[in-house]
Amino acid sequence: MTSSPTSASARQYARNRGLAAVSAITIGAAAAGAVGAATIAISLSATTAATSASSPVQSANSSTTANQDDSGSTLQAAQAPTTSNNPPVATTGGS
Q1: In a domain, 87, yes or no
Q2: Rounded to two decimals, what is the model's pTM?
Q3: Is residue 19 part of a domain?
């Protein structure tokens, strides 16, 4: 049983139809990604605006000194660790 060969125009039509489907899927995914990114940006800006608007006392009390942490203690400079020639050691725990 042999099948008849398909014409060149039928093959071209099928190829174009398949490419159109792939193109539509790609455009849909890009549009969904753009909508998701816009939604995240809007929700983050709304959260920031609400936080800064609702806490004027906190911003008035915040420290302007760059070398203090939240506890008010001053951070001290420390010497960098020295290098060693020891080979790495395998550990457990996924670290």
Answers
A1: no
A2: 0.39
A3: yes
